[in-house]
Structure formats: structure tokens, C-alpha cells
Amino acid sequence: IEKEPEAESISAEVKSWLGDRKYFLFMGPPSAIRGIFELLSAFEIAAQSDPDICLVCLFRSDAILDNEKISQRISSMAVKDRIYTRWQSVSPVELNSFIKAGYVTVMPFVMVPSEIPLAVVETARWGKPVITTGPGGTGEYVENFGCAPKVGDINALAKAMLKLSNDSDFYQHSSRVAATTYQNHPTWKQVSAQWLEVAEQAMATE
User: Fold this and answer.
1) Which of 55, 176, 190, 204 has a CA-to-CA distance to 47 between 20 and 30 Å?
2) What letter does residue 107 receive in the DSSP assignment?
3) pLDDT in tens, 57-90
């Protein structure tokens, strides 16, 4: 990653809706496998304890997956007025703007990816904590600057959201580690050099 990405201020519409509250950010396809239903249930629990948190969901529009079920679930929630949804893919600049203005990015995968999702690094570059799910390499990586409750544990996910919302020392520490993690992340050039070295070593052993 060679340079800081562009970002603008979030729209007046979002600012007006948000007020002085803070938001947790979900971004990705509207798919159950991404843990959106677990997140909605966890947010419902956390929001009842913390009146100052909101949830922003940026759903990619490249595929119609569980859109209808998700929309129905949100409509049935008592805290639906504290959930902002976008059902159209946003530009890279707008996405960065949402990450930068957000409080925490939440990626509660039902099936945890073996590789570190790029969205984790994209969040860390703005010094923002991450909540994902564990166990696995992604969870272990994220625990350095956020939380990684067990897959499917809605109560643990809600507690993680409340911890980051209410424990300012933990939040500030997580933010600092996130920023440092990004600063120490290899550039694409360095990554390619590492892969080249691995390939050369593999060929040398044949």
C-alpha cells in the first residue's frame, strides 16, 4: 500500500441522521455468510444498553443474495431508526469516507476466511478498531487492535461492541495499534518481492 487513500466528508444526509452518535460499520455483500443476521441481533442487544451507538450497513449491489430477508429483519427491529443502509455499491472514495468517519468496522464472518481480508487493512489505515470472528488467523490478527468473539456468539459480539463503545482506554489503545499495524504493513512491492523469494527458493529445491 503506497499512499494514503482519498476520503471526503460523509454526506449531509448521514451527518443529519447520525447527530452526535457514533456508528459501527458493516460493509460487504448482503449475504448471511458474512454474519449480517448475527450482527443485527448483537446490535439490537448492544443498542438497548448504549443509546449513542448506531449501525451503518453498506451492502454491495453486485449480487442479489439475502437482501429481502435482511430488509425484513431490519424493519422488524425496535432500533431500526438507528440503522442506516445503502443497497448500492459505493465508490472507493466514499467507502474510505465511511471507514474514516466510523467508530469500528465489524466483520462477523460465519465462515472465517483463511486469509486476512483487505477490508481489515483498509480499516487499520484510518486507525480504526475492528471486530471480526474467530478462531483462526484473521481473528488472531484482529485481536491486536479490536475483538474477535467466537463465530455465532451473538452475546459475545454485543459485549465486544459495548466494550469498544464504553471503554475509552481500550478503544484508544486499539486505535493506536491499528494505525501502527497499517504503518508496518508491507507495500505491494514488498509483498511481490516476498512471493518472488518464495518462488526462487521452491525452484532451487527441485
Assistant:
1) 176
2) E
3) 999 987 768 999 999 999 999 999 999 999 999 9
